[in-house]
Every structure is written in C-alpha cells, then in structure tokens.
Request: fold
Amino acid sequence: MNLRRIILVELLVPLALFIFGAYHGVLQVMYLSGVIRATSVAGIDYYQGLTAHGVINAIVLTTFFAVAFGYTVVSQQLKSQVSIAGATLSLVLMLSGAVMAAAMIFLGKASVLYTFYPPLMAHPLFYAGLVLFIVGSWVPMYTWTPVYLRWRKENKGLKTPMGVVGIFATFIVWQMATLPVAVEVLVQLLPWSLGWTAGVNVMLSRTLFWFFGHPLVYFWLLPTYVLYYTMLPKLAGGKLFSDFAGRFTFMALILLSCPLGLHHQFADPGISTTSKGIQGVLTLLVVIPSLLTAFTLAASLEYAAHQRGGKGLFGWWNQLPYFNPEVWLFPYLFCGLLIFLFGGITGIVNASYSMNNVVHNTAWVPAHFHLTVGGPIFLGILGGSLLMITGLLKKPVVSGTMAMIVPYLWMAGTFIFSSGLFMGGLRGEPRRTNLGLTYMNPASPSYRSDWWVPAHMGLVGGCIMGLAVLLYFIVLIRSLAAAPDEALAKVPFLLPTSEAYHDEDVPAVRNFAPWVAAAVLLCIAAYYVPIHDIVKNGISTAPGYRPDSPSAVNRTH
Ligand code: HAS
Reply:
C-alpha cells in the first residue's frame, strides 16, 4: 500500500462507521424526548447504542482523522517521504483494535459508555481492542520524528512549518495522555475483566481515566486548530494575523492539556479539595491559548475581509466568503468557530468549582461537549476529510453548494439541541438516562412536564443535525462516484496554506523540548498527591456490573 491509500482508508473506514454513530445520535434524542419509550430499538439497547455513539464518534473518528491529517501535513510540509512500513503497522493495529472494540459493543458485551468507568465491566476483548487501537496511534509520531529531525538539519535557521508544529503538539499531548489510560486498562481493567482480580479500585480508575480524558479533548481540538491557523486565513482571502500566536498556542497546549483532569471529578470523594482547587485553577489557565486563538483568528478574518474590499468597523463582516461554493470549506471552519464561542464559555462555567455542582452529571454537560467536540472538531473533520478524500482521488466536490449548506445546517441543529440540553440541565435533567421510560413518559409517576420543552428542543435540534449528516454523505458519495477531474489530475494535491501577516520569530516557541519537560513536571506536581491519597486511603475494590442488572457480573465470559 502507498501512503495515499493508507490515508484514504484512515478517512473512509471511520466515516463509514460514523453512519451508525450518527444514526444513534438521532435515536438518542428520540429516547430523551420520549418519542421512543422502550429499552431498545432494532435489537440495540439504549446503553449499547450510547456506547457505540460515543466510542465511534469521539474516539475512532477523531483519532483516525488526526493520524490521516498528520500524515498529510507532515509529508507535504516537510516535503519528505514518511515510513510506509510504520504507516501500515499503525493502520493494521488501529483497524484491528477498532474492529475488536466495535464487535464487542455490537454483541452487547461492552455497554460501558465511552468513558468505560468501572464498576461497569466490558468483555476483555473490548479492552484489548482499545489497547491495540491506542498503540497503533502511537506509531505515526515515532515515524515522523526522524523525518523532522532530518528536515531541521537540512534547513538550519528555518522555522518549522506551522502545520508540523501543530501536528507534533497533537501527538505529544496524545502520548502523554494515553500513558495513564494504558496503565488503567492494562493493570486494572483487563485483568479484572479476565477474572484474574476480584475487584477494581474505582477511584483510581476514574482518576487515571480523566488524567487521559481531559487531554483527550485537546487532542481532538489540536488538529482543528491546525486547520484554523494554517488554512482559514487563506480560505478567507487573507493572512494569519500572528505567526507567534499560533506557535504559542500549540506549545501552551502541550504544557497545559494534561494536568487538569480533576475538573471532571470535582464531585468525587477521596480527592482533597486542595488538589481539586489547584487543577481548577490550571483549567482556567488552559483557556488562555483558546482566547488567544479567538482574537488572532478574528483579526485574521478582519484583515482578509479588508483585503476583499470590506470597510469600516463592522462593514467588513459582509465580505467573507460565507456562501461561495468555490470555497465550500470556509463555512466548515467558520461555523465551527461560532459554535466554539459558546462551547468555550460553557466550559468556563463547568470549570468553576462551585458552579460545577449545579451542572455536573446533568444534560448541561452533553450540551457543552456538542458545542466543542460536536462543533468545531466535528465540522473540521467533515470538511477536512472531504478536502483530503477528493484531493487525493483527484475528484471534484459534487456539489459545492450542498457541501456548503452542511455546516450551516449542523450549526443550526447544534444550537437548538444544545440550548434544549442546557435548559434541561439547569432544571436537573440527568445525562446518560433513558428519559422516555420514565421522566418523559406521562404514564409514569416520575413524569416531568417541565422537561418537555427542553427535551423536545433536543429532539428538533438532533433531527436537524441528522439531516446535515445525511446531506454530507450525499455529497461524499456523489463525489466518490464522480470521474476524476483532468485539471486536478495534472497538479499534486496540496493543502491550502496561509502566509503570516506578522511573521514574528520568537526563540521560546521554536523548540518542543522545554515545553515537554515543563509539561511532564507539571503533571507530576498536579497528580502526585491525588493518586498517592487514593492509593493510600485503600478504598475497597468493586466487582463488575452491567447497566441492565443490579447483580455483579459473573466473570466467566
Ligand atoms: Fe470541556 C466536560 C471545561 C473545552 C469536551 N468537555 C467536557 C466533556 C467533554 C468536553 C467531552 O471544567 C464531557 C466529558 C464527560 O463525558 O463527562 N472544557 C472545559 C473548559 C474548556 C473546555 C474550561 N471541552 C473543551 C473542548 C472539548 C471539550 C475543546 C472538546 C474538544 N469541560 C470542562 C469541564 C467539564 C467538561 C469542567 C466537566 C463537567 C462535569 O462536571 O462533568 C476550555 O478549553 C474552553 C476554552 C475555549 C474558549 C473559546 C474560544 C473561542 C474561539 C472561537 C472564536 C470565534 C471567532 C469567530 C474568531 C475560551 C476560538 C468570530 C467571527 C468573526 C467574523 C470575527
């Protein structure tokens, strides 16, 4: 296989799986609004479908995209061959892992949600699949590193291309994040699910999971930031306002992504309030690179609009290519930014220790994350995948207009969906609950009429999001079926790359090493005490459970 084929498989296979992920998104809003009042549909039960929705959309699709995009950026921007053996090994491991985990979910043996918290227990093959998938995703960075070092030797004095900085930042964060989850899976969950240990320390497991789970969200975000910093200004018709801002953002996210997972555990026992407070402050610090990104991209868009003839303080807004089918990728990135404004603000609410008590484990939380991972990241993946698939196959995008409508429709759906969930969350509507059986069923004594409007806003928004996905697949399938374009076939496929307006050269953001070293030290400082406390307190271990039974699992699978 050549690299082009490997990248195509890495983009197309998860998109095919995503059809089920999206279908179960629509089913979710039906369960939540009481349109479905059952425990299962078509043989797939609520928690099984929710697990597939989370694992496929948030782990499989995002990670494959990061790897495929990483290969494209590194090989194009460093103008070098990458190791095909390494790329093939990574693909085989990731595919086998994804197939194993998906098979266990579809067989109903891994309804543990994407967070796979114990005491919910999955089949050992689910955990083994996760291990293969993660190990496969480690391989690319180690095959890119010699290529990068060679490039630096041959191009002394030149700045590393911005896209390459962003991709390395992505995979450095991934490497740091996945070590604690590897310990969780290999030392705790896999032996426990094999019946080799009687129970699992749930608090340790949750802490190791969130040590991974929060940097995971920045691992999702970083490739999208690469799209924003390297492509958006060019698509808008301008330049990146500040080269330094992009490089600083990537380095700051290496430093700050990992040591703050405890903000997902503000309500957990066994961890001191001091540790939670420290990580709460670090969470507010990690907002800074995103605020810097907001100002830099807004300035870049304003500059582009002025280049296109925009005038005055507000008049320039009209000049951006919002509805130009030729630049169909622009709205994928622009709508993502608009959505992220609200995802970011609600993240700051979550991070505030006291306000978190009001929203934790309510529908507010999925509302927040559909405005982050379900907003900028998802639209970046859809747009970026369409760009790379058609570019590598030398096919035209059929049709640019329909492709352009998708992000607007998705944004409208996401805003309606999330507003409903925010509203419901503030009224106490729980997350991860099949509301149709009780709270949204007028025949039930638990019926909550005050959740009707929010839950139905979720339904309307979710169906619009489903429609956007349908349109996207129509564009993708029609483009795949189209004949290759002769003009495209004559030129190599290259990602659009923006120039910098202010091309500052700041030595502090030229080298990864000090940022990685500082990040490792900060992680040790932030996690030593909470992990020490959890282990020292000797919390008793728990047997395994399934979501449909109050009895412990018999571990003979
Ligand atoms: Fe979060 C829970 C805090 C960002 C994802 N988050 C979650 C969960 C997920 C998730 C999946 O502190 C649920 C996990 C679970 O299943 O339990 N989050 C934050 C904070 C940020 C944040 C402070 N989250 C993200 C991102 C995610 C993501 C990014 C995915 C990729 N989150 C939390 C907390 C919880 C949480 C608590 C736990 C809640 C609980 O109790 O369970 C920040 O990083 C956000 C910073 C972002 C900004 C926005 C910048 C805006 C930009 C757009 C600019 C627009 C422009 C357009 C330029 C400050 C960049 C202008 C247009 C012109 C024309 C000018």
Q: What stands out?
A: The CA atoms of residues 90 and 136 lie 4 Å apart.
